[in-house]
Inverse folding.
């Protein structure tokens, strides 16, 4: 599967952005989907993930209550709605696909098999 992330940009603190991750080559419903981010000089970190059906989600503590992950399997796309953005949310955001057959959502980057190219999110103070 190929993943294409989009929707990043420059926004003021308190603003919102919606990231999209479009899949091609395979149906996105075959995968648990995750969002990760990497700020300059820092390690890649887990942001959120969603089960194949969309019935289960996970969030990093730092984004809980501000970010919402969703998916529309009919259009092969996963979304990350980001509200009340903070300067510390500034990073390159990546979507990723986990082909594991189980139901468990993982926050571990190495468990994800396919990655998109990333989209830059910059939040100004």
């Amino acid at each position: 599967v190929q993943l294409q992330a989009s929707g990043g940009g420059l926004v003021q603190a308190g603003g919102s952005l919606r990231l999209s991750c479009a899949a091609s080559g395979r149906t996105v419903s075959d995968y648990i989907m995750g969002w990760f981010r990497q700020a300059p000089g820092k390690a890649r970190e887990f942001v959120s993930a969603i089960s194949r059906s969309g019935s289960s989600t996970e969030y990093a503590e730092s984004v809980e209550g501000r970010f919402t992950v969703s998916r529309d399997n009919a259009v092969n796309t996963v979304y990350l709605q980001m509200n009340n953005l903070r300067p510390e949310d500034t990073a390159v955001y990546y979507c990723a696909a986990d082909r594991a057959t189980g139901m468990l959502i993982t926050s571990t980057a190495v468990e994800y098999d396919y990655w998109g190219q990333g989209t830059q999110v910059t939040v100004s103070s």
User: Anything to note?
Assistant: The mean pLDDT is 96. The first strand starts at residue 2 and ends at 6. The two ends are 37 Å apart (CA to CA).
